[in-house]
Design brief:
190 residues, alpha/beta, globular
Amino acid sequence: MEKVEIRWHGRGGQGTVTAAKVFADACLSGGRYVQAFPEYGPERAGAPLRAYNRISSKELRMHCPVTHPDVVVVVDPTLIESIDVTEGTKDDTKFIVNTSKEPSEIRKKLNLKPTQKVYTVDATKIAIECFGRPMPNSPMVGALSRVTGLVSLDTVLKDVEKSFGKKFSQKIIDGNLLAVKRGYEEVKEG
């Protein structure tokens, strides 16, 4: 692996930026060079936003948005209706979408090439079941770990526990750890 570029699409208040940071931290713990940074429009809850990761086995010298992502993570599926999440994607880009729909349905909706892969996971449902809030970020980190293979589930779980440990109760931490595991296990490929 030389370099993997990831573009996240979400809305303010869904934990998308936190998810990108947690994933980068886990990859860093796994011995990789990383970048994680957001791109905000108007900073308000519900506003569309993008976040980016670069993960590499070599030092990263680029400091610009990801324009040709290897992986696109769609945290809020309603964005598919309003923005082009496929913009700048490659022939082998992987899409991970938070939805209860089947991958084949999303493939059709996004009009993807046969060489592009689609994965779906019902991250919002998992989050509600695990810790009672519609915050899909933790299950999406689990799904991303599984799809990319960039970092082990154990490393992700340790980093989630470390980053959430300072801010949340053990009950919330345990719920998020379960949500990451379920995202990892329940992601579907189509």
